[in-house]
Amino acid sequence: MERSPLILLVEDDAAIRDAVAECLETEGYRVQAAGDGAEALTWLARGERPALIVLDLVMPVMNGAELLAQVRADPALERVPTLLMTAAIVAGTTPLPAADATLVKPFDLDQLLGAIGRLAPRA
């Protein structure tokens, strides 16, 4: 039996992180959660590779742009797809890091699952 895709969820807001993780697990994904980019990098350094990284842009300690830059600079991680979740877009003036897809908060469950399904399809 093939294992379901593993998603690394990086979000500093515990309520959002828990809700998204629960939703993804209900949909059959495995989820590893982190509260900021530094925590996510520590987990990634252990060697397991996610099928997708879902990350918030604005976080303390290490934000999403900094994490994404570290991921893209690592040959072992550079091809892992990334989905950026952010409310930090103001009339198109906020530069965004080059993620594979971006969801603007607030988004609905169908938008989230659609983006994840395109980036980390289940077998």
Query: Which structural category fits the helices and strands?
Result: alpha/beta
Mean pLDDT over the residues: 87
Counted beta strands: 5
For the record, the CATH class is Alpha Beta
Could you explain how this protein is built, in words?
The chain is α/β, with parallel strands linked by helices. The protein has a single domain (6-119), classed as Rossmann fold. It has 4 helices and 5 strands, in the order E-H-E-H-E-H-E-E-H. The mean pLDDT is 87.
Q: Characteristics of this structure?
A:
alpha/beta, Rossmann fold, 5-stranded parallel beta sheet, 5 strands
Summarize the structure.
The chain is of the alpha/beta class and 123 residues long.
